[in-house]
What we know:
Elements: H1 2-13, E1 24-31, E2 42-47, E3 53-57, E4 63-69, E5 72-79, E6 85-93, E7 98-104, E8 113-117, E9 131-135, H2 136-139, H3 148-152, E10 176-179, E11 182-183, E12 201-207, E13 222-227, E14 235-243, E15 276-288, E16 292-304, E17 308-309, E18 323-324, E19 327-342, E20 345-353, E21 356-361, E22 374-378, E23 387-396, E24 400-409, E25 412-417, E26 425-427, E27 432-434, E28 440-444, E29 447-460, E30 463-483, E31 488-492, E32 510-514, E33 520-537, E34 540-554, E35 560-576, E36 583-593, H4 599-603, E37 614-619, E38 624-630, E39 647-659, E40 663-675, E41 677-680, E42 683-684, E43 690-691, E44 694-697, E45 704-718, E46 721-734, E47 751-754, E48 758-761, H5 762-767, E49 772-773, E50 780-791, E51 796-806, E52 810-811, E53 814-818, E54 827-829, E55 836-837, E56 841-852, E57 868-876, E58 912-920
Parallel strand pairs: 1-7, 6-8, 10-13, 26-31
Antiparallel strand pairs: 1-4, 2-3, 2-5, 5-6, 9-12, 10-11, 12-13, 14-15, 14-58, 15-16, 16-19, 17-18, 19-20, 19-21, 20-23, 21-22, 22-25, 23-24, 24-29, 25-28, 26-27, 28-30, 29-30, 30-33, 31-32, 32-37, 33-34, 34-35, 35-36, 36-39, 37-38, 39-40, 40-45, 41-44, 42-43, 45-46, 46-49, 46-50, 47-48, 47-53, ...
Amino acid sequence: MVLVSVVLAFLATATLLADGTLLGTIAGRVVDEDGNALPGATVEIISADQGFQRFLTSDATGSFTFALLQPGPYVVRVSLPSFQSFEARDNVVTPDKTTLITVTLKIAAATATITVTGETPLVDKTNTSATTHVTSTLTQKLAVSRDSWDLIALAPGVSSSGFNPNVHGALASNNLYLLDGVDTTDAATGTFNELINYEAIQEVAVSTAGISAEYGRAQGAYVNVITKSGTNQLHGSFKLLMTNDDWNAQTKGENPIPNLDGSHDSFARSKFDKTIVHDAYTLGGPIWRDHIWFFGAYETVDSTSPQRQTFKSNIYPDSTGQNYQETVDVRIWDGKLSGQITPSQLLVAQFNSDPIKGFAVDYWGGSANLEALTRQDQNQCSGLGCLKQLHWSGVFGSHVGAEAGYANQASNISVGPFVGHGSPYFSIADGLYYNGATFVGFVETPRKQANAAISIYHELFGRTAQLKVGLDYQSLESAASFSYPNNETFIVNQFDPSLGQNQNFAVGDEWDRFTAPRPSISRGKIWGYYALEKFEARRVTFNLGARIDHQTARSDVGFTVLNSTKVSPRLSAAWDLSGDGKMLISAGFGRYYQFLIQAIADFVFAGVPQQKNRDINLWDGSQWVLDRSVRVNGSTQPVNDDLSPSYADELNLAVQRRIGSSIAVGIRGIYRKWNDLIDDVKMFDETGNEILTPRNFPSDVARRSYKGIELTFEKRFTGNWQALANYTLSRTSGNQFADYTSQLFDFPGEECEVTGVGSLPCGQATDLNQFGIAPYDRTHVLNVLAAYTVSLPSVNLTAGPVFRWQSGLPYERQRHLGVPDGSPGNFYFIDRRGSSRLPSWYQIDFALEGTFKPFGVGPHWLVGGPIELGVKAEVFNVTNQQTIVNTRFISTLPNEFFGKPTSRDALQAPRSFRFTGLVRF
Length: 921
């Protein structure tokens, strides 16, 4: 009880920003040549980058633990009277892992020091999660996109790339995005929300299975982007990157939908012959050597994209499939101050900002002309940026470690028409949108967060064990003001683009006139508590933990619409089969609850709902006649007091093997099953108002599951080369792949209209053929990336190939489904979900970098080495493959164009080039 009281007292006064830790651990045991423990040995560690030192004395079992260390290389020295001294260099500390060292001391026959090469935690029996560390030492040598989210796709189990990937069967909104431990996930949508300066990235750690209790509220990937810090040496870089669409290959093929004269438009684009210049700078170094350091990064680019293309209509082919380009203005900067106030106390302050203007987005997912596109600007913040955070960590003696801090994030998006200000039209004949953007307005999702953790190191079963407890707190807000251009939409049998707003309407066409928009602001709070115990017994290391997550949300009129508390057990064990920590067999069980996005409060229970309340008018042949009014008033919606986040139960079994000092291989099997999936049942009450109360459904009704096998290979940089490779064989299936509202259970007892079929009971029309393969499933995914350096007399050459191969995405034949409330976004599945699939595709990217040092050894008193100059050439899609890869841009209508691309955006991007001039010191 005394220990518990101390822990609770600490947690009551300390706060830390995010789950888990950015820091690492060095631990080990001092023994003699017979393996007997040597207590009382003096153990010293020295940071090779920052210069600070710590001292400990090995305990009665010979064990020592240095917790909460900044990532980087360390020297470990051990001494004991009557024994030879021991020194291990280049012991690499990585975030959230333990670098294990066994120190064997020999009887001193003479004064001498045994020096050995240090350790790198490629295989860690204290942390058996499926985590891929994509480090900058590798990615800076490769031809990869300069975006952190593209690096996520290099991890196994990721079934799609882009801003928001699907991981191990989870939805794209079920990932957790951390920046140096700070939760930057969008509060309203659960998606990616913070662009990171690429030059500031030290590594991206992607954890996908076997997650410890420190981390919660996500069912997909836990993505932690870790940024660089300053050191005792002045280091910096400057890069000038250049691209030009005129250098790139032409788009292949032609649109299968013929023009009115029978000709076919080529997918070939008009190349944009302008060199886009991208500047990127970094600078870091000491303010007070061994104590305080700084690091900063800044990049800027005004970039115009190659020609993109809207969808082409088989009704009006000559007026659709329009070309367009987007011009974005990017300014991204990061700043960090680190202070090792004492050898055991670390303080870090950090600031980030990512203002971007000019995105062109097809939110409809079927825009036929430019007027239907949306323009988006994001994160226009002033002062110290959009994200501000403060970290503290400290150790007290050899038995207690603690972490604390605070973060404040501002996030905003403004949206409007890409061109024009017309009203949106949905055409039933071709399933496409015309004439108007999806949004006009803004969204703001600020977040304040804090949490705390304390670790107690104690002896258990003759070894050092760790008890860790912590809490985290978040205060969320979601402010939205969305309307349609001109505050109206049309659903028509056929839209004639040449007539614009002056359409010739047909009987049954629909005009929805929306109520005047007003802003809506909802608020939420999250409390998370966790506890875990890590210990070893008979060569088996256990991590036994659990977390409690409590989430509440209030609508814009103050009604509590969510109040949920859930417990997540996390249990894992690793058997050290070889006895030296180099071969592990591990097994784990985990329960992962989703983050209930604030959008549930925004769009279901809002007293001021966005883009919902409207008068539905039908054309009778001569005029518009009011048919009905849809009123969705969140303040009168029946609140489901039992609504809770869905959860995925996961079993995973893995074998990991370290080969030598720099290679690790592994195989892992994963099974996941979802329970309590959330959906809504749309219906009308006795007054004709629409009711959309979300509820949990049993797993035999709303289903989702995942099973997969992963093979992994990792080679750290030694012998001039480094590599990362993985292969995933998997299957995701079910019938529910939406956050909280799909069409599955909508309008029971009502009639729905299926284009080309007629009237059907909605229950039959919405459920038919829904069970099958997930729309984001990829059976096979293979990633191979490597870098090899050749040192010539005057230049270093580094070649960096990247190979990716994936199964194509599944799809099925569909027709438009007319539902009683007039919403156009519902579909009748003619075939079983996922019954067709795009072809498999591959891509080879290649980089070649040459660097030299013109000034010899360089001014070591000023910088950490000589100044380095270089050039880098990158080729993306070397073999110019242009396979169909995107189901958003193919026809799913049951006609002769089914499965064929209706826009060049359905294809892989043609071969392209990027050239970089660089200076590093």
